[in-house]
DNA-binding transcriptional LysR family regulator
Amino acid sequence: MELRQLRYFVAVAEELHFGRAARRLHISQSPLSAQIQKLEHELGHKLLNRTTRAVTLTGFGRDFHRRAAEVLHGADELASGLGGVSEGQAGHVRLGFVSSASYALLPRTIRMFRDAAPGVTLHLEPLTSSEQAEQLREGRLDLGILRGQEGATELRTEEILAEEIMVCLPGDHALAERSEVCAQELIQEPLIFFPPREMPGYASEIQPIFHGLNFPPVYTRIIQQETALGFVAAGLGITLLPESVTAFAPSTVSLARLSGRPRTRMYAAFAQGQLSPAAQLFLRVLRDVGQELHS
């Protein structure tokens, strides 16, 4: 039994006239009649009473018409839904992201994406770069937003946004009034740093700042960059953070630029292979927002 046969039968059952049903289906009457006979043979039941004057449904035909119409309606809904999936307008996107993406990049991207594809469900997972890389390789995420490329082996990456790395100092620090400092001036300062294992990308962007110098003494290593700001405000040390994060610094934290203007880069990451249409659409929106923020 084929969907085509069901469509043919439903047309005849609703028109109760082979000629009108054939015109509705844009076929000739002969193949239509042949397909109805074939369907009756396959079912082992007569569906229609045919006379020279009229066509009527048998009892079995009336029940079969109702069921066939339900099947065709479901098939049409499925086809419509799959069409939405193929166009990126339906389905799911599983997105991992580093916390610093949630300040500017991610909110704008989500808003624009939901306007463009309201039928897509977003599953958002705040994760470190290393956690995202692992889940991307295992197929548990569709897309990730990472800091730096270190640790993103076996993944495809695409730069989305670059921003300056800023020095965050306690408000009463001797350098607090300076608008710019150099790395040499920081090598004796206790540093609120980040664990290279969990945050390999960002840690690898910080280390070259002190190339050829002694690396500052690490007071502690933490994952959440927001917590780093709190520790600086408490006077426990200094830290280095992306400019977008420093926009939320407490008033008791002073900010300065670094000589040489070192930058940190945020990347979209995804596994080798084909992204779903919805994930491709999200990536396109992410690129657009990254360009807006860059400009």
